[in-house]
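Renewal narrative, Specific Aim 1. Our central claim is that a sequence can be written position by position from structural information alone. The example that follows is taken directly from our test logs and has not been curated for this report. It begins with the structure tokens describing the chain, in the order in which they were read.
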């Protein structure tokens, strides 16, 4: 993925595209984004739709030409942008991607407000309009207080034994977005047969962003744990517990989470698909963790009967069982009360919203104030009813011509990948043959699903926001569980159409580019090809390269976990990838924290490979054409500045610290400088001399694809 995907309930499951108002295979009606309808003279003026602001994919005002590009190319390309774009108070970072994301939210706000206000609405507008209206009715939400989760709190209080926990956990999992409720469960593609869907159990149960937060002994990490305990204590106080009791309960939750965290895979370990493959039958799972009635759990979740479940972290399940055996029921009740409330806090009344913000966004990530309510409501509508909202978005913002242009670019970059594979001196003919089979099997998904999801069964009203959230969560949870035992739907998407992001799915063997990421300044139909290939082209190449990075290369053309490399070729790939790992390990993120380059390896390899492919494809697309210098830059320079300017960003130190621990992507500065130092084409474009900071000695250059 180009950027981390956040706030997705099931990381193992992509979205299924189901029937709705747009028929399968039909293209949404073309429209010019932001253009109001034409009316006869004298007619009442229509409401002017919001338009996505236009910024070119190469903006010379974002540069600082006083900086030597051979010394720091990122600052040369982005210093002006950084100066002119301070971080808004409600943001933890600010970037070209982040700005386009918020521009998209403003655009979607107009769609939602129209849907909420319309007197005559179709089924899609009713769902998204009423959800948005209920979300923005903060007076009603405040009046409800904690009542929306009172039934669940009552069920926790009435637990009589650990043996009764399984069906309660199933209910809590169905109704909430967090896997903080002890563990995660759902469906996943069988790693050995990607056409089959099996049940899945994954590690969870933590309230801090990562297992390492519980164990690091530096002063900042100790301070974070102290603040977390204080946050947990305040949540219990909001539930009405006396301060002494709340403090004891908070200490209990911290102790229980710390024990669970010891058995979590690290984020680097989670990148090994073989570690995550631990298939067994339900009787074996019951034997591994007998304290939980797994049959009762899956029955309460309304999961289909199945023969196989994958346990991504067996040692976690064993530790969970040990805690279920040894920890008193009263402590488990406190644990469940906190995690239920913590998960629901953003959707409850103001005191809960404020406390959740104070710890997770203000303290951990550095935000100075909360986002406006409308923005949160747009984001939640997109998360929970995304393919309903997406229909309206693509009809207005993503024309057939734009789709055709980006599909053409994708095909050219795949052609470049084919040439690279064929020309590799270090890869044997046998492995090349399988690599080409995999390349030609990749499916390109551009813009939006071919078939829209049907939300008809989701009851949405504007009278009760918590019920809307609960119903949407139940819909998605049941949809996920119901995949078990069914053939894989390879038309499903893992992102909604307005998302400003992209991804590669190794088991689907597809690359996915939502309409939201194909807008200016990322893809700009008004500008020359060079910056477009540098920007969007490198993104396409990035996702394509993920199929052949250290993780993706372990899956075959069908998406099965299968070794198709000769032993010698695999060793040569590892040696070349280690060149990238060693390079990025030298970079400092913040303070004395270096990039965890084993965590970022796949993304760093994809950044380099994707840029090489985009450069080749651009040269092919413009072959025989007389290219002109523009704005004082040669065509090759425009390609590289276009590349750099997608990554312009400002980050708060708190956000940098969190990302260093959790994000598989390097900071933007190194995603650019770390790439161009390995590209002789860059040094030629800017006439960089040997010994310059952006020029590696020839024998040190990292070369993979």
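The sequence written for that structure reads:
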């Amino acid at each position: 993925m180009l950027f981390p995907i956040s706030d997705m309930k099931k990381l193992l499951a992509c979205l299924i595209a189901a029937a709705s108002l747009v028929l399968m295979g039909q293209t949404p009606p073309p429209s010019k984004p932001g253009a109001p309808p034409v009316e006869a003279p004298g007619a009442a003026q229509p409401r002017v739709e919001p338009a996505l602001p236009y910024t070119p994919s190469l903006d010379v005002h974002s540069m600082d030409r006083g900086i030597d590009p051979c010394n720091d190319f990122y600052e040369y390309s982005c210093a002006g942008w950084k100066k002119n774009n301070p971080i808004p108070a409600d943001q933890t970072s600010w970037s070209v991607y982040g700005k386009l994301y918020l521009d998209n939210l403003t655009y979607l706000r107009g769609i939602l407000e129209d849907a909420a206000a319309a007197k005559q609405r179709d089924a899609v507008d009713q769902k998204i309009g009423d959800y948005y209206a209920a979300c923005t009715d903060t007076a009603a939400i405040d009046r409800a207080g904690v009542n929306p989760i009172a039934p669940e709190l009552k069920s926790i209080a009435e637990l009589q034994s650990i043996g009764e926990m399984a069906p309660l956990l199933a209910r809590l999992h169905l109704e909430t977005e967090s896997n903080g409720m002890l563990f995660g469960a759902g469906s996943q593609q069988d790693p050995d047969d990607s056409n089959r869907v099996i049940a899945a159990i994954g590690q969870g149960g933590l309230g801090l962003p990562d297992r390492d937060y519980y164990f690091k002994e530096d002063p900042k990490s100790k301070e974070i744990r102290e603040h977390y305990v204080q946050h947990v204590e305040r949540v219990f106080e909001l539930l009405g517990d006396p301060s002494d009791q709340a403090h004891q309960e908070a200490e209990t939750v911290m102790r229980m989470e710390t024990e669970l965290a010891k058995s979590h895979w690290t984020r680097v370990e989670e990148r090994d698909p073989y570690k995550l493959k631990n298939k067994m039958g339900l009787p074996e799972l019951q034997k591994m963790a007998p304290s939980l009635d797994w049959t009762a759990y899956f029955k309460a979740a309304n999961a289909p009967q199945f023969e196989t479940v994958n346990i991504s972290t067996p040692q976690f399940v064993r530790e969970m069982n040990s805690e279920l055996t040894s920890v008193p029921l009263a402590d488990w009740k406190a644990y469940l009360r906190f995690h239920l409330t913590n998960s629901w806090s953003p959707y409850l009344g103001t005191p809960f919203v404020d406390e959740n913000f104070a710890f997770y966004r203000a303290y951990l990530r550095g935000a100075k104030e909360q986002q406006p309510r409308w923005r949160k409501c747009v984001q939640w509508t997109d998360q929970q009813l995304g393919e309903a909202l997406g229909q309206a978005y693509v009809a207005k913002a993503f024309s057939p011509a734009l789709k055709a242009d980006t599909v053409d670019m994708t095909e050219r970059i795949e052609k470049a990948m084919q040439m690279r594979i064929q020309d590799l001196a270090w890869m044997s003919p046998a492995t090349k043959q399988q690599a080409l089979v995999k390349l030609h099997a990749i499916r390109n998904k551009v813009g939006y699903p071919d078939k829209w999801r049907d939300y008809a069964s989701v009851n949405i009203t504007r009278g009760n926001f918590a019920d809307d959230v609960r119903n949407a969560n139940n819909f998605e949870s049941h949809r996920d569980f119901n995949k078990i035992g069914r053939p894989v739907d390879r038309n499903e998407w893992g992102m909604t159409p307005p998302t400003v992001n992209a991804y590669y799915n190794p088991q689907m063997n597809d690359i996915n580019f939502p309409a939201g990421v194909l807008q200016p300044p990322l893809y700009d139909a008004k500008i020359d090809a060079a910056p477009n290939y540098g920007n969007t082209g490198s993104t396409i190449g990035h996702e394509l390269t993920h199929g052949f990075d250290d993780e993706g290369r372990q899956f075959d053309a069908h998406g099965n976990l299968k070794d198709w490399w000769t032993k010698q070729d695999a060793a040569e790939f590892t040696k070349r990838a280690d060149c990238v790992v060693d390079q990025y390990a030298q970079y400092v993120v913040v303070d004395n924290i270096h990039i965890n380059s084993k965590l970022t390896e796949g993304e760093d390899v994809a950044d380099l490979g994707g840029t090489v492919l985009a450069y080749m494809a651009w040269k092919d697309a413009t072959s025989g054409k007389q290219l002109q210098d523009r704005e004082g830059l040669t065509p090759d320079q425009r390609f590289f500045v276009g590349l750099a300017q997608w990554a312009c960003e400002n980050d708060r130190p708190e956000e940098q610290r969190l990302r260093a621990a959790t994000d598989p992507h390097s900071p933007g500065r190194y995603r650019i400088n770390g790439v161009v130092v390995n590209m002789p084409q860059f040094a030629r474009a800017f006439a960089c001399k040997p010994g310059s900071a952006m020029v590696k000695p020839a024998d040190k250059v990292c070369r993979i694809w």
